[in-house]
TrEMBL record:
InterPro entries: CofD (IPR002882), CofD-like_dom_sf (IPR038136), FbiA/CofD (IPR010115). Keywords: Magnesium, Transferase. It comes from the Archaea. This is 2-phospho-L-lactate transferase. It comes from Nitrosotalea devaniterrae. Its EC number is 2.7.8.28. It holds the Pfam family CofD. GO terms for molecular function: LPPG:FO 2-phospho-L-lactate transferase activity; magnesium ion binding. The lineage of its organism: Archaea, Nitrososphaerota, Nitrososphaeria, Nitrosotaleales, Nitrosotaleaceae. It is an enzyme of class 2 (transferase).
Protein backbone atom coordinates (compact mmCIF):
# COMPACT_ATOMS: atom_id res chain seq x y z
CA UNK A 1 0.00 0.00 0.00
CA UNK A 2 0.99 3.60 -0.63
CA UNK A 3 -0.15 6.44 1.61
CA UNK A 4 -0.32 10.02 0.42
CA UNK A 5 -0.65 13.05 2.73
CA UNK A 6 -2.71 15.55 0.81
CA UNK A 7 -4.32 18.95 0.79
CA UNK A 8 -6.51 19.96 -2.14
CA UNK A 9 -5.58 21.76 -5.34
CA UNK A 10 -1.79 21.32 -5.12
CA UNK A 11 -2.03 17.68 -4.09
CA UNK A 12 -4.76 16.20 -6.28
CA UNK A 13 -2.63 16.04 -9.42
CA UNK A 14 -0.08 13.77 -7.81
CA UNK A 15 -2.80 11.68 -6.15
CA UNK A 16 -4.34 11.15 -9.61
CA UNK A 17 -0.95 10.32 -11.09
CA UNK A 18 -0.24 7.71 -8.41
CA UNK A 19 -3.73 6.26 -8.98
CA UNK A 20 -2.78 5.52 -12.60
CA UNK A 21 0.07 3.35 -11.28
CA UNK A 22 -1.52 1.41 -8.43
CA UNK A 23 -4.96 1.08 -6.84
CA UNK A 24 -3.80 0.25 -3.32
CA UNK A 25 -3.70 3.83 -2.08
CA UNK A 26 -4.74 5.63 1.08
CA UNK A 27 -4.99 9.39 1.02
CA UNK A 28 -4.80 11.14 4.39
CA UNK A 29 -6.66 14.38 3.88
CA UNK A 30 -6.26 17.74 5.52
CA UNK A 31 -9.33 18.98 7.39
CA UNK A 32 -8.02 22.40 8.45
CA UNK A 33 -9.82 24.13 5.54
CA UNK A 34 -13.20 22.71 6.52
CA UNK A 35 -15.78 25.44 6.88
CA UNK A 36 -19.36 25.88 8.06
CA UNK A 37 -21.52 28.07 5.83
CA UNK A 38 -25.34 28.33 5.70
CA UNK A 39 -25.39 25.44 8.17
CA UNK A 40 -23.52 23.23 5.67
CA UNK A 41 -20.23 21.53 6.45
CA UNK A 42 -17.81 22.03 3.56
CA UNK A 43 -14.61 19.96 3.28
CA UNK A 44 -12.72 21.46 0.33
CA UNK A 45 -9.68 19.20 0.47
CA UNK A 46 -11.60 15.93 0.84
CA UNK A 47 -13.90 17.00 -1.99
CA UNK A 48 -11.07 18.07 -4.28
CA UNK A 49 -9.50 14.61 -3.97
CA UNK A 50 -12.90 12.95 -4.36
CA UNK A 51 -13.80 14.97 -7.48
CA UNK A 52 -10.29 14.62 -8.89
CA UNK A 53 -10.38 10.83 -8.68
CA UNK A 54 -13.96 10.72 -9.97
CA UNK A 55 -12.80 12.87 -12.90
CA UNK A 56 -15.41 15.55 -12.27
CA UNK A 57 -13.06 18.17 -10.76
CA UNK A 58 -13.04 21.61 -12.31
CA UNK A 59 -9.34 21.48 -13.13
CA UNK A 60 -9.20 25.13 -14.28
CA UNK A 61 -10.12 26.34 -10.80
CA UNK A 62 -8.66 23.36 -8.91
CA UNK A 63 -11.82 22.98 -6.78
CA UNK A 64 -15.52 22.36 -7.28
CA UNK A 65 -17.27 20.26 -9.93
CA UNK A 66 -16.69 20.98 -13.60
CA UNK A 67 -19.55 22.64 -15.50
CA UNK A 68 -21.42 23.16 -12.22
CA UNK A 69 -24.21 25.76 -12.13
CA UNK A 70 -24.80 28.39 -9.44
CA UNK A 71 -28.56 28.65 -8.97
CA UNK A 72 -28.29 27.84 -5.26
CA UNK A 73 -25.74 30.62 -4.70
CA UNK A 74 -27.82 33.15 -6.69
CA UNK A 75 -30.82 32.32 -4.52
CA UNK A 76 -28.75 32.76 -1.34
CA UNK A 77 -27.64 36.14 -2.70
CA UNK A 78 -31.26 37.11 -3.30
CA UNK A 79 -32.06 36.20 0.26
CA UNK A 80 -29.34 38.57 1.44
CA UNK A 81 -26.89 35.84 2.46
CA UNK A 82 -23.14 35.95 1.98
CA UNK A 83 -22.05 35.06 -1.55
CA UNK A 84 -18.26 35.11 -1.51
CA UNK A 85 -17.82 31.34 -1.38
CA UNK A 86 -18.72 29.87 -4.75
CA UNK A 87 -20.64 26.73 -3.94
CA UNK A 88 -21.99 25.12 -7.08
CA UNK A 89 -25.35 23.35 -7.23
CA UNK A 90 -23.95 19.85 -7.59
CA UNK A 91 -21.23 20.59 -5.02
CA UNK A 92 -23.96 21.75 -2.61
CA UNK A 93 -25.58 18.32 -2.76
CA UNK A 94 -22.41 16.80 -1.29
CA UNK A 95 -22.25 19.36 1.54
CA UNK A 96 -25.93 18.89 2.30
CA UNK A 97 -25.72 15.11 2.51
CA UNK A 98 -22.53 15.24 4.55
CA UNK A 99 -24.05 17.67 7.03
CA UNK A 100 -27.16 15.57 7.36
CA UNK A 101 -25.11 12.44 8.01
CA UNK A 102 -23.09 14.30 10.69
CA UNK A 103 -26.37 15.37 12.26
CA UNK A 104 -27.42 11.72 12.31
CA UNK A 105 -24.33 10.83 14.33
CA UNK A 106 -21.98 9.56 11.61
CA UNK A 107 -18.36 10.68 11.77
CA UNK A 108 -16.44 12.33 8.94
CA UNK A 109 -14.43 9.14 8.23
CA UNK A 110 -17.55 7.03 7.68
CA UNK A 111 -19.18 9.73 5.60
CA UNK A 112 -16.07 10.08 3.43
CA UNK A 113 -15.89 6.32 2.95
CA UNK A 114 -19.54 6.33 1.90
CA UNK A 115 -18.85 9.15 -0.57
CA UNK A 116 -15.93 7.18 -2.06
CA UNK A 117 -18.29 4.25 -2.62
CA UNK A 118 -20.89 6.49 -4.24
CA UNK A 119 -18.28 7.87 -6.64
CA UNK A 120 -16.91 4.34 -7.25
CA UNK A 121 -13.43 5.34 -6.07
CA UNK A 122 -11.27 2.52 -4.80
CA UNK A 123 -8.69 4.86 -3.24
CA UNK A 124 -9.32 5.23 0.50
CA UNK A 125 -9.71 8.86 1.54
CA UNK A 126 -9.06 9.18 5.27
CA UNK A 127 -9.71 12.49 7.06
CA UNK A 128 -6.66 13.01 9.28
CA UNK A 129 -8.95 13.35 12.29
CA UNK A 130 -12.68 13.24 13.00
CA UNK A 131 -12.24 16.12 15.44
CA UNK A 132 -12.26 19.79 14.53
CA UNK A 133 -8.96 21.38 13.50
CA UNK A 134 -9.25 24.85 12.04
CA UNK A 135 -6.48 26.64 10.15
CA UNK A 136 -6.58 30.28 11.10
CA UNK A 137 -4.48 33.02 9.54
CA UNK A 138 -3.19 35.60 11.98
CA UNK A 139 -3.16 39.07 10.44
CA UNK A 140 -2.61 42.57 11.82
CA UNK A 141 -6.42 42.91 11.88
CA UNK A 142 -6.93 39.79 13.97
CA UNK A 143 -7.18 36.18 12.94
CA UNK A 144 -9.43 34.72 10.29
CA UNK A 145 -10.46 31.24 9.18
CA UNK A 146 -8.37 30.26 6.15
CA UNK A 147 -11.42 30.48 3.84
CA UNK A 148 -12.25 33.96 5.14
CA UNK A 149 -8.66 35.12 4.76
CA UNK A 150 -8.06 33.60 1.33
CA UNK A 151 -11.44 33.64 -0.39
CA UNK A 152 -13.49 36.38 1.34
CA UNK A 153 -10.64 38.84 1.89
CA UNK A 154 -8.69 37.62 -1.19
CA UNK A 155 -5.52 37.10 0.82
CA UNK A 156 -5.02 40.86 1.14
CA UNK A 157 -3.86 41.38 4.71
CA UNK A 158 -0.31 40.86 5.86
CA UNK A 159 0.14 37.44 7.46
CA UNK A 160 1.76 37.33 10.90
CA UNK A 161 1.34 33.62 11.54
CA UNK A 162 -0.78 30.51 11.23
CA UNK A 163 -2.66 28.60 13.92
CA UNK A 164 -4.20 25.14 13.89
CA UNK A 165 -6.97 25.57 16.40
CA UNK A 166 -7.97 22.29 18.05
CA UNK A 167 -4.90 20.38 16.84
CA UNK A 168 -3.58 19.84 20.37
CA UNK A 169 -6.79 18.05 21.38
CA UNK A 170 -7.53 16.31 18.09
CA UNK A 171 -7.18 12.54 18.04
CA UNK A 172 -5.34 11.18 15.01
CA UNK A 173 -7.64 9.00 12.95
CA UNK A 174 -6.54 5.42 13.80
CA UNK A 175 -7.05 4.46 10.13
CA UNK A 176 -4.56 7.17 9.17
CA UNK A 177 -1.97 6.00 11.70
CA UNK A 178 -2.40 2.41 10.52
CA UNK A 179 -2.13 3.42 6.86
CA UNK A 180 1.23 5.11 7.55
CA UNK A 181 2.38 2.12 9.55
CA UNK A 182 1.34 -0.47 6.95
CA UNK A 183 2.51 1.35 3.80
CA UNK A 184 5.70 0.57 1.94
CA UNK A 185 5.93 4.20 0.86
CA UNK A 186 4.44 7.42 2.27
CA UNK A 187 4.29 10.41 -0.04
CA UNK A 188 3.80 13.98 1.17
CA UNK A 189 2.05 15.55 -1.83
CA UNK A 190 3.16 18.95 -3.18
CA UNK A 191 0.54 20.81 -1.14
CA UNK A 192 0.92 24.08 0.69
CA UNK A 193 3.36 23.22 3.52
CA UNK A 194 1.59 25.39 6.10
CA UNK A 195 -2.09 25.23 5.21
CA UNK A 196 -2.41 21.79 3.59
CA UNK A 197 0.29 19.59 5.09
CA UNK A 198 0.97 21.64 8.25
CA UNK A 199 -2.42 20.90 9.83
CA UNK A 200 -1.90 17.16 9.20
CA UNK A 201 1.53 17.26 10.86
CA UNK A 202 0.17 19.30 13.77
CA UNK A 203 -1.69 16.23 15.04
CA UNK A 204 0.56 14.50 17.52
CA UNK A 205 -0.32 10.90 16.67
CA UNK A 206 0.36 11.46 12.98
CA UNK A 207 3.61 13.30 13.53
CA UNK A 208 4.82 10.57 15.86
CA UNK A 209 3.99 7.75 13.42
CA UNK A 210 5.64 9.63 10.54
CA UNK A 211 8.80 10.32 12.55
CA UNK A 212 9.01 6.61 13.36
CA UNK A 213 8.47 5.79 9.68
CA UNK A 214 10.57 8.58 8.20
CA UNK A 215 12.86 6.20 6.28
CA UNK A 216 9.93 5.46 3.95
CA UNK A 217 8.58 9.00 3.71
CA UNK A 218 9.20 11.13 0.61
CA UNK A 219 8.14 14.76 0.29
CA UNK A 220 7.44 16.27 -3.12
CA UNK A 221 8.27 19.97 -3.32
CA UNK A 222 5.47 22.44 -4.03
CA UNK A 223 8.10 25.08 -4.83
CA UNK A 224 10.31 25.72 -7.83
CA UNK A 225 13.01 28.21 -6.90
CA UNK A 226 11.37 30.67 -4.54
CA UNK A 227 7.95 30.45 -6.19
CA UNK A 228 5.02 28.22 -5.32
CA UNK A 229 3.65 26.16 -8.22
CA UNK A 230 0.19 27.32 -7.09
CA UNK A 231 -1.38 29.33 -4.28
CA UNK A 232 -0.04 31.49 -1.47
CA UNK A 233 2.50 29.05 0.04
CA UNK A 234 5.42 31.49 0.01
CA UNK A 235 3.48 34.18 1.85
CA UNK A 236 2.70 31.74 4.67
CA UNK A 237 6.28 30.41 4.71
CA UNK A 238 7.64 33.92 5.16
CA UNK A 239 5.19 34.57 7.99
CA UNK A 240 6.30 31.35 9.66
CA UNK A 241 9.92 32.53 9.45
CA UNK A 242 10.91 29.83 6.96
CA UNK A 243 13.42 30.26 4.16
CA UNK A 244 11.40 30.27 0.92
CA UNK A 245 13.25 27.57 -0.99
CA UNK A 246 13.35 23.80 -1.23
CA UNK A 247 16.01 23.97 1.49
CA UNK A 248 13.57 25.80 3.79
CA UNK A 249 11.04 23.06 3.05
CA UNK A 250 13.60 20.35 3.68
CA UNK A 251 14.33 21.83 7.12
CA UNK A 252 10.62 21.76 7.94
CA UNK A 253 10.18 18.19 6.73
CA UNK A 254 13.46 16.58 7.82
CA UNK A 255 11.89 15.43 11.08
CA UNK A 256 9.25 13.37 9.26
CA UNK A 257 10.79 12.53 5.88
CA UNK A 258 14.13 11.27 4.62
CA UNK A 259 13.59 11.60 0.86
CA UNK A 260 12.73 14.68 -1.16
CA UNK A 261 11.76 15.19 -4.81
CA UNK A 262 12.72 18.63 -6.11
CA UNK A 263 12.66 20.30 -9.52
CA UNK A 264 15.81 19.82 -11.58
CA UNK A 265 16.27 23.59 -11.68
CA UNK A 266 16.81 23.54 -7.90
CA UNK A 267 19.72 21.12 -8.15
CA UNK A 268 22.16 23.63 -6.65
CA UNK A 269 20.46 23.03 -3.29
CA UNK A 270 20.73 19.24 -3.43
CA UNK A 271 23.98 19.00 -1.49
CA UNK A 272 22.70 21.33 1.23
CA UNK A 273 19.52 19.25 1.62
CA UNK A 274 21.51 16.04 1.72
CA UNK A 275 23.37 17.47 4.70
CA UNK A 276 20.03 17.32 6.53
CA UNK A 277 20.17 13.58 6.03
CA UNK A 278 17.63 13.54 3.23
CA UNK A 279 18.10 11.79 -0.09
CA UNK A 280 17.27 14.13 -2.98
CA UNK A 281 15.78 13.27 -6.38
CA UNK A 282 15.72 15.82 -9.21
CA UNK A 283 13.07 15.77 -11.93
CA UNK A 284 10.41 17.91 -13.61
CA UNK A 285 7.82 18.46 -10.85
CA UNK A 286 5.34 20.82 -12.52
CA UNK A 287 2.23 18.90 -13.61
CA UNK A 288 0.40 20.67 -16.45
CA UNK A 289 -1.65 17.73 -17.70
CA UNK A 290 -2.43 14.08 -17.02
CA UNK A 291 0.71 12.97 -18.82
CA UNK A 292 2.84 15.03 -16.40
CA UNK A 293 0.91 13.63 -13.43
CA UNK A 294 1.58 10.10 -14.55
CA UNK A 295 5.24 10.83 -15.34
CA UNK A 296 5.95 12.31 -11.89
CA UNK A 297 4.09 9.47 -10.17
CA UNK A 298 5.98 6.85 -12.11
CA UNK A 299 9.30 8.65 -11.40
CA UNK A 300 8.58 8.52 -7.67
CA UNK A 301 7.56 4.87 -7.70
CA UNK A 302 10.58 3.83 -9.77
CA UNK A 303 13.34 6.07 -8.42
CA UNK A 304 12.61 6.56 -4.74
CA UNK A 305 14.05 3.53 -2.99
CA UNK A 306 13.02 3.49 0.63
N1 LIG B 1 -11.64 28.88 -3.54
C1 LIG B 1 -11.69 30.14 -3.96
O1 LIG B 1 -10.65 30.76 -4.15
N2 LIG B 1 -12.92 30.77 -4.19
C2 LIG B 1 -14.09 30.13 -3.99
O2 LIG B 1 -15.16 30.71 -4.20
C3 LIG B 1 -14.06 28.76 -3.56
C4 LIG B 1 -15.21 28.02 -3.39
C5 LIG B 1 -15.10 26.66 -3.02
C6 LIG B 1 -16.26 25.89 -2.89
C7 LIG B 1 -16.15 24.55 -2.52
C8 LIG B 1 -14.90 23.99 -2.29
O3 LIG B 1 -14.79 22.70 -1.94
C9 LIG B 1 -13.75 24.76 -2.41
C10 LIG B 1 -13.83 26.09 -2.78
N3 LIG B 1 -12.68 26.86 -2.93
C11 LIG B 1 -12.78 28.17 -3.33
C12 LIG B 1 -11.36 26.31 -2.68
C13 LIG B 1 -11.02 26.20 -1.20
O4 LIG B 1 -11.45 27.31 -0.52
C14 LIG B 1 -9.54 25.96 -0.86
O5 LIG B 1 -9.52 25.14 0.26
C15 LIG B 1 -8.78 27.23 -0.53
O6 LIG B 1 -8.68 27.97 -1.68
C16 LIG B 1 -7.41 26.95 0.08
O7 LIG B 1 -6.73 25.90 -0.50
CA1 LIG C 1 -6.78 23.53 0.67
Amino acid sequence: MITILAGGTGSVKLVRGIATQTRDISVISNVGDNYWLYGLYICPDIDTILYGLADILDTDKGWGIKKDTYGFLRQMEMLGEENWFNIGDRDAAIHLLRTNMLKNGKNLSDITEWMCQKFAIDVKIIPVTDNSVETRIVTTKGDLHLQEYWVKHKGQDKVDGIKYVGADKARANPAAVNAIHDSKLVIIAPGNPLTSIGPILSIKGIRKELSKSKKKVVVVSPLIGNTAISGPATKYMEAAGMEVSVYGLAKMYSEVASHMVIDSSDRLLTRKIENLDMKVYETKIKMKDKKDEEALASFILKQVHV
